[in-house]
Amino acid sequence: MKKLMIMLIAVLVIVLALSLVSAKLTGSTTKAGAKTLTIYNWGDYIDPALIAKFEKQYGYRVVYQTFDSNEAMLTKIQQGGTSFDLVVPSDYMISKMRDEHLLLPINSKKVPNLKNIDSRFLNLSFDPANHYSVPYFWGTVGIVYNPKMLGGSKITSWNDLWNKKYRNQILLVDSAREIVGMGLNSLHYSVNDTNKKHLKQTLQKLKKLTPNIKAIVGDENKLLLPRREAAIGVLWSGDAVEIMDENPELTYVIPKEGSNVWFDNMAIPKGATNKKGAEQFINFMLDPKNAAKNAEYVGYATPNREAIRYLPKKIKNDKRFYPDKKLTDRLEVYDNFSKPVNARFNELFLEFKMNH
Amino acid sequence: MTKKWTNTYLIPYVLWIGLFVVAPLAMVLYYSFFDIQGHFSFENYLRFFTPIYLKMAISSIGYAFFITFFTLLVAYPTAYLLTRMKNRRLWLMLIILPTWINILLKAYAFIGLLGTYGPVDTLLAMSGAGRRQILFTGSSFVFVSVYLFIPFMILPIYNSLEKLNSSFVEAAYDLGASAWATFRRVIFPLTLEGVKSGCQAVFIPALSLFMLTRLIAGNRVITLGTAIEEHFLVTQDWGMGSTIAVFLILAMVVVMALMGKGWLKRW
Amino acid sequence: MVKKRIGSTLFLLCVFVVLYLPIFYLMFYSFNKAGNMTHFTGFTFDWYKEVFSDKRLIAIVVDTVIVALLSSLLSTVLGVFGALAIYLTKGRHYKNMLLSLNNILMVSPDVIIGASFLILFTLLGIKLGFISVLLAHIAFSVPIVVLMVLPKLQEMSPTLIDAARDLGAKRLDVLLKVVIPFITPGIFAGFFMALTYSLDDFAVTFFVTGNGFSTLSVEIYSRARQGISMSVNALSTLIFLITLAIVLVYYFSTRGMGKVKQLSGGEDA
């Protein structure tokens, strides 16, 4: 009994001491009475120096919270209970949230720097006229591979992956839309094709890829590919940048049959308590110098035409990550599927995974 | 008198059960009757009995069984040897300590350790066994799961072993029982409660393991937990996710009923 | 006999080596100049410097520890009550029902628990943040405490209680002086398991956290999209070493106390 009491008191004392430390830590970074701006973003997806700069310049206290998937973020916003002033969902999620009335329109007058965005990336199908969103970073889905491990052979298309000599060499990303999209593309259908017959054909085609697949993985492909666990990976261009940073042997290609182009976008969710601050923040992030700094830190491609000027030559001239208009015309943005269609895609992918 | 006893302790506990068990349970049951478009139907239950989900259920149960078995196989002797150690409380804490490191990080470390050109692979190659695929196989999945669950099995077994009255063991020896017979007839039955709670603490969560199936097994193993995860977070088909959860809960009740009836006690 | 000794020592050694292998692997690469877990190119302390300059990260660590300690403490209390309640329930059916209900949270996948707690908290009007995370952690730690304490209670011979009561002890006295001391090892085990669950949890916390409050695992998971930086490894190394030090200091200081007590004829530790 005595031992339990000692334990109890010890725990309480430690908790008290730590609360003081915590209060001091969070207190020291902010000025009392400053209005807060709550940002909900992917982890490590912004240069922290920019947040500090913004706080200093505009006098807000920025609270930064993170999520690890669009859907998890959506659940959080739908339920309410906590208010965010700014979120960074991907394209299809923008239209979904708009349709569910979860986004507030952005006042473009308050965001004059919108003019810096390349017109290629404005007025896209998921948000016509950019009423609700401003692109943050963009990229493609493609193939990263290690020519050295493949005896110098070159991969240029989705259909190359079905080559028998790549047995047990491919890591696929664990995402239904991307992999089913790859199957559809390889048959020269659109990534947004929902025709039942075409989907059935796609499943048959994907099943034939099974002997070549080593594993279906998530973010850990960034650990696996540089260490030569496999020679080929199907993934997002943002991941490819990081992989090639770690192991320059690898290269990235956007398959010639076509592929998906994705956008992560800044948007203001319903229930935001500091809309003015959110718009100021969007405008701040669209400033060419800030956008360039952020792009260098994160490593993804910026849609900001003016910012590209400030980027090192090596980055801005890399066609693999800054493809020209001729190439981007071949790429498609995902349509926002209805729930049943989405479910069909996922069931198809599940069946494919069960057989692999 | 006894009745009063029970009542006082029950109040906070039942309150907790009501709020955090029954309420979520009722919600899961409720959602399981709605199809993806939000209409009331039994479709999800029919879907569960299609080959895809049945196959998944069988393989989940199989893997959970293997994981529990191997965890017990390692944990029991470890717990037993720990009770004979000098600073045994310290060693026990050192067993628990690794669980405090984030599971995702440990999984990443295992990817590094078990991967091609990793230390284990190199060791195998040098020992003449030759390079072979270790990562992304069912056995590496079982291995890493056992690794994660071992502390949860050791603790209850250790607890029951520690209170084991050593005079029973000595008496058995005095009566001329062999070491094996002593273990089988005296030690093991007396620590059965610990083994049972250990098995429950492993088997049940093993059924719903999800992250390791991707990280370590590269989706070659797909458990019911993985499917639930996907239905809730990717497909947003909460109905089907809930239906699978209902079956998981049923599986748990069955396991507990089996344990309760003392099917282990036969010997 | 000697052979047997060596065999069992070897076995234990193997268990410990395997348990600590991935942790040493993480620690090793936290000093890697290349900043990844692929190739070790040189020794550096940069990642540690990065940890200490990231105030947000340190605040998150502190908050994580506060939630873990508080929630384990409260769930241990609740769990002991629960174990007593189950132990004292007479009917076999009621007992089994309570136990099944107890275990449901352990079988339920984290996402479901998280999502349903989120709905529950919003229904009750509890603001998401520290309190909601604390409540959720208490909620999912209770079952494991019950599972740790219950076997201890079942080992207790009923005659012990009867004897105490025959001697005229009051209800509370029986509880405090007889029952609790007997089940103390179970209580400690429950507390440590609760701590483990709390520190490890990601999915449930993710759903119920909000308003700027975050825990370490939520932060680590959401950073995975950009690839895990070695500063996370450095942080884990620090946490591991600090915990190890606390365990060692705690153990040897209490052992010292126990010895003194034993010499003076007090109760043993």
Written account of the structure:
Chain B: Belongs to the binding-protein-dependent transport system permease family. CysTW subfamily. Chain B: The chain crosses the membrane at residues 12-33, 53-78, 90-114, 134-158, 201-218, 238-259. The complex is a heterotrimer of chains A (356), B (267) and C (269). Chain A is α/β, with parallel strands linked by helices. Chain A contains 14 helices and eleven strands. In chain B, helix 3 (51-83) packs across helix 7 (138-162), helix 3 (51-83) runs antiparallel to helix 10 (192-207) and helix 8 (166-174) packs antiparallel against helix 9. In chain B, 48% of the residues are buried. Chain C starts with a helix and ends in a 6-residue tail after the last helix. Chain C has helices spanning 2-29, 46-53, 55-88, 92-107, 110-124, 130-155, 158-166, 171-200, 203-208, 216-223, 230-263. Chain C is 80% helix and 0% strand. Chain C contains eleven helices and no strands. Chains in contact: A-B, A-C, B-C. At the B-C interface, helix 1, helix 3, helix 4, helix 5 and helix 7 of B face helix 1, helix 3, helix 4, helix 5 and helix 6 of C.
Short synopsis of the structure:
The complex is a heterotrimer of chains A (356), B (267) and C (269). Chain A is globular, with a radius of gyration of 23 Å.
Architecture blueprint of SSEs:
The complex is a heterotrimer of chains A (356), B (267) and C (269).
Chain A: H1 2-28, E1 36-42, H2 48-58, E2 61-67, H3 70-79, E3 86-87, H4 91-99, E4 103-104, E5 133-145, E6 170-173, H5 176-186, H6 196-209, E7 213-217, H7 221-224, E8 232-236, H8 237-246, E9 251-253, E10 259-269, H9 275-286, H10 288-298, H11 305-308, H12 313-316, H13 325-328, E11 331-332, H14 339-354
Parallel strand pairs in A: 1-2, 1-3, 6-7, 6-8, 10-11
Antiparallel strand pairs in A: 4-10, 5-8, 5-9, 5-10
Chain B: H1 2-31, H2 43-48, H3 51-83, H4 88-96, H5 103-114, H6 119-126, H7 138-162, H8 166-174, H9 179-190, H10 192-207, H11 211-215, H12 224-233, H13 238-260
Helix pairs in contact in B: 1-13, 3-7, 3-10, 7-10, 8-9, 10-13, 12-13
Chain C: H1 2-29, H2 46-53, H3 55-88, H4 92-107, H5 110-124, H6 130-155, H7 158-166, H8 171-200, H9 203-208, H10 216-223, H11 230-263
Helix pairs in contact in C: 1-11, 2-11, 3-6, 3-8, 4-6, 6-8, 7-8
